[in-house]
Write a structure and sequence with these properties.
Length: 306
């Protein structure tokens, strides 16, 4: 058993350290390279791009680069570029509406590397340039818009910014994906407070107008009822003499009934009046009448001319 221990130790050493060392040495001298998913490798030698490998998997550089693969890691350089989809959100880009209101726009956009060579050599900071370009395009294209459109046409504004930024980003090797205006808000706190006060006042005005309209409707109904009642009372007052005249005309055909009726009416008036009533009867009626007249005052004589 002890005679197999050196062989086991050598095998363990080779598997643990030897094979990784040999693979690393082979990779250093450019025999092979491994490209990950959504990754790109650009090989540059003496300022010249030799090869761009963007297919994931194992690649033997002797077949792709030729003899230059043996010195590419010594005298050249391999750029590893991440081509995964990335995204960024710009908060509260300052713009002004057509009415002069200070607004803030939050814009979200996606991007990925579409041209690795242009991404490496045409712009020293393509991501920062894309960020600045999106910000400038947002301020330039969306300023002086009517406030109603700015608050209600986000899809249209997103397309405007994307069409403005895409040509320049393609020159830098960046492909701009989806662009979306996520938020439009007021930047001035005093203006927000004023708008809130205006909304509250408007709600109060609408509530008062509704109450007033209800009161007016009730008044119209009441006045209509009063008008109809007054019309009916007027009609009744107008036809009352005619009805009384017809009744009296029918009664006048019977003299006995007429006399009894007028006596009853006269007696009713006398009893309902507040005046003093003195009843005089018999043969001494004339003397008693004279005494009562003398008590009230001397009689008024008629004028001689009459």
């Amino acid at each position: 058993m002890t005679e197999f221990l050196p062989a086991l130790f050598i095998t363990f050493f080779m598997l643990m350290f030897g094979i990784p060392f040999l693979l690393g040495l082979a990779k250093f001298f450019g025999f092979y390279t491994v490209v990950e998913e959504r990754q790109c490798q650009v090989f540059v030698l003496f300022g010249k791009v030799l090869k761009v490998i963007d297919e994931p998997g194992l690649h033997f550089l002797l077949f792709d680069l030729g003899p230059a693969a043996l010195i590419i890691n010594l005298l050249g350089k391999c750029y590893v570029i991440d081509r995964r989809l990335d995204q960024e959100y710009r908060r509260s880009e300052p713009v002004n509406s057509e009415e002069g209101a200070p607004m803030g726009i939050g814009i979200w956009y996606e991007m990925w590397v579409s041209d690795p060579v242009a991404y490496l050599f045409k712009n020293t900071d393509p991501r920062g340039s894309l960020r600045a370009n999106v910000s400038n395009a947002t301020v330039r294209c969306l300023s002086n818009m009517p406030l109603s459109e700015m608050l209600g046409t986000r899809h249209k504004m997103s397309l405007t910014v994307r069409n403005e930024v895409s040509p320049r980003s393609n020159e830098w090797g960046y492909q701009l994906g989806s662009v979306y205006i996520r938020k439009v808000h007021f930047r001035d706190k005093d203006m927000i407070r004023q708008i809130e006060e205006k909304v509250v006042n408007r709600l109060r005005q609408v509530t008062a107008a509704i109450k007033q309209a209800g009161a007016n409707q009730v008044s119209v109904i009441s006045s209509s009822a009063e008008r109809e009642a007054s019309i009916e009372f007027g009609r009744a007052s107008a036809i009352r003499p005619n009805l009384l005249g017809q009744a009296l005309r029918e009664i006048s055909k019977e003299p006995v009934v007429v006399k009894a009726l007028f006596e009853i009416l006269e007696t009713q008036k006398i009893t309902e009046s507040a005046g003093r009533l003195t009843l005089v009867g018999g043969d001494n009626g004339a003397l008693l009448r004279n005494l009562l007249a003398a008590k009230d005052g001397p009689p008024t004589l008629p004028s001689p001319g009459l």
